[in-house]
Amino acid sequence: MSTTQSSSAEKKVTTNTVQEMKRRGEKISMLTAYDFTMARMVDASGIDIILVGDSASNVMAGHETTLPITLDQMIYHASAVVRAVMRALVVVDLPFGSYQGDSKQALNSAIRIMKESGAHAVKLEGGVEIIDSIKRILSAGIPVMGHLGLTPQSIYKFGTYTVRARETEEAEKLYQDALILEQSGCFSIVLEKIPSLLGKRVAEAVRIPIIGIGAGPHVDGQVLVTHDMLGMTYQFQPRFLRRYLNLYKEITDAITHYIHDVKTGDFPNEQEQY
Ligand code: KIV
Known about the structure:
Blueprint: H1 3-11, H2 15-24, E1 28-32, H3 36-44, E2 49-52, H4 56-59, H5 71-84, E3 89-93, H6 103-117, E4 121-123, H7 131-139, E5 144-149, H8 155-158, H9 168-184, E6 188-192, H10 196-205, E7 210-213, E8 221-224, H11 226-229, H12 247-264
Parallel strand pairs: 1-2, 1-8, 2-3, 3-4, 4-5, 5-6, 6-7, 7-8
Helix pairs in contact: 3-5, 5-6, 6-7, 9-10
Bound molecules: 3-methyl-2-oxobutanoic acid (KIV).
3-methyl-2-oxobutanoic acid (KIV) binds next to strand 6.
């Protein structure tokens, strides 16, 4: 292997890289992407992990929940992202209904994602109740990221998108689930919308990286939905979200300008024609 090849390979983020980052105390950055163009920009910016989240069901397809997105649709999104990414670790959500009932089905779903998209790992929502599925996927050599706290695939069980695990019993279950996921071999866990002190307790108790979304500052890294932090999904305003741009306004202003230029005959001008 040439020096160039080996140095570019060394720069790729792997599951080991993020575990090493936790050991060094270096925070891990993670964002979502569902298509080639966005994934190229997110990767080029130096993000550590790109999540092809089932939030694509809301953001890309306009569904109210993450439940309708299918395995085929997740593979379509993941393949586009993988084609764009040169450095980041690409993790793909197993969609609702593709892993909960049966560990064999879970393994088949994970294998399809890895084979057909070229992604590097999968993410599953849930703790002890899906542990057989997680173990079976791991036994095939597929890295697994867990997801506890607010797990949007269970929205009809929770009834609302409010903060989870405020009560002792639910907090204790989440803590025990995190230990079980670590013991089973998950390389990392996402904690969504839980009290900051619980995030801290879990992050201190396990050696694998804890990535938070609305889980406070004491965890090992942060994840946001890219379209939210860029201000494209302007109606979504949870407390944990920091907006870095107001792209909804920027884009609609630019399109209004274009429409004006077309209607007035200003576009195309002398230089913009053959
Ligand atoms: O689907 C998704 O985007 C997620 C993140 C919110 C963690 O699971």
